[in-house]
Design a protein that fits this description.
It comes from Lactobacillus helveticus CIRM-BIA 953. Residues 169-193 have a biased composition (Low complexity). The chain has 3 helices and 34 strands. By secondary structure, it is mainly beta. A hairpin with a 7-residue loop joins strand 15 (144-147) and strand 16. It is globular, with a radius of gyration of 22 Å. The termini are far apart.
Length: 401
């Protein structure tokens, strides 16, 4: 790839989420003789990491094949494929890609000035989904693009794509890492307050990088644009949904996005636009600041009055934020049960919806004011615990009134 066409913006990673159905399914896998090993095409230049998630310095080029252990593994919450017979791990998002929703009608590009086709289509439309591979590239026009195919040059402007909908790599349910030289680390509940650890970061982008803050509703607000070469003292490194919001605001996703807190302010810098003097501990916003559940089975959604919404969430490994725990009287069962309330989310979700013929069908829709039985889901232990805001007796009394 010619260097004067674009600059690699990042090497991507992504927390494991549920199995998915991309806009296009590309066949890049060739099964090897050993059923536990697969030859996979690497779709985005990929750095090899060791079993502890540290870079080995080895690089695998895009469109080359690597012999990989078929079952992916997690290291510090990120999905990797192990290179067969080597202590090397490649981030799965550089191989299988991730699914994004198209938010604006978009063309497909070979270069910053030349268009091309993708699966015999010259234009993609809002609402469709598409698979992107690895982090975004910055072309010579200064705009960022995601690779959507290959080895032919096929790219889509990052501005026209939304945040990651889901990862394409499927982890086996309740899978454990069986390899003796790999680790599966559960997220830890880091409680280190802002200010106990700090480093210096330098803006490392010729276009600069936005300094942002968050309003009362958690929306991203730009303060100003930090210039290339500016230095800042930072005291907190955060991943999770807020970092994803900043990535969406900037239009640059790498799957490994995080934000640095500028010491003594309420402002933050996007990690992919800066260079750090030294590493500091990574904190997960969704675990430390919110309560999180997982759907371990197909689960009904309820209304606040205990009636069914006729919508179900299927088993998946995604984290779902909840903002309260309470008892709700369920008339059909004539008893009160504990329910979690799903926190509002602007993203559309894959669900099962009861159709007019009485059958549940696949659908894609936003989840609004919905509750799930606590007994039907799994609470993520390292997230913020909730206590019921009422009692079963109070729920029964309120319902009968």
């Amino acid at each position: 790839m010619k260097k004067n066409i674009f600059i690699l913006a990042s090497v991507a990673a992504l927390m494991a989420v549920s199995p998915m159905l991309p806009f296009s399914s590309q066949a890049h896998t060739v099964q090897a003789a050993d059923t536990n090993v697969t030859n996979k095409m690497i779709m985005h230049t990929s750095i090899a990491y060791d079993k502890n998630g540290n870079s080995t310095g080895t690089k695998y080029n895009a469109y080359s094949y690597a012999k990989l252990v078929s079952s992916p593994v997690k290291i510090d919450g990120t999905i990797y494929y192990k290179v067969a017979d080597k202590d090397q791990y490649l981030k799965a998002t550089n191989i299988d890609g991730v699914t994004r929703k198209i938010t604006h009608n978009t063309y497909i590009y070979r270069t910053s000035t030349r268009r091309t086709s993708y699966q015999n289509k010259w234009k993609l439309y809002k609402g469709q989904t598409i698979t992107t591979y690895g982090g975004s590239y910055r072309f010579k026009n200064g705009k960022h693009y995601f690779r959507v195919g290959g080895p032919a040059k096929q790219y889509v402007k990052s501005y026209n794509l939304g945040p990651v909908v889901r990862a394409n790599t499927t982890m086996a349910p309740n899978s454990n890492n069986t390899s003796s030289n790999t680790t599966t680390n559960k997220p830890t509940n880091n409680t280190q307050p802002v200010g106990n650890e700090e480093t210096t970061v330098t803006v490392n982008d010729s276009l600069g990088t936005p300094i942002v803050t968050f309003d009362q509703n958690g929306n991203v607000v730009q303060v100003r644009n930090a210039k290339n070469g500016e230095k800042f003292t930072v005291d907190y490194l955060e991943k999770g949904s807020r970092a994803d919001k900043v990535a969406g605001y900037i239009g640059q996703f790498g799957g490994d996005q995080a934000i640095y807190h500028i010491k003594g302010t309420n402002n933050w810098l996007y990690s992919m636009g800066v260079k750090t003097a030294s590493k500091i501990q990574v904190h997960n916003y969704d675990l430390e600041q919110t309560s999180v559940i997982k759907f371990t089975q197909t689960t009904d959604l309820y209304n606040a009055d205990g009636s069914l919404q006729n919508i179900r969430i299927t088993k998946n490994s995604e984290w779902w934020r909840v903002d309260k725990l309470l008892y709700i009287w369920v008339p059909s069962e004539n008893k009160a049960e504990e329910f979690y309330h799903l926190a509002p989310d602007s993203h559309w979700k894959d669900v099962l919806r009861l159709s007019n013929n009485g059958q549940y069908v696949n659908d894609h829709m936003p989840i609004k004011d919905a509750y799930v039985k606590a007994s039907d889901v799994q609470f993520v232990e390292n997230s913020v615990k909730l206590t019921p805001s009422n009692t079963a007796a109070e729920a029964e009394t309120a319902a009968k009134k």
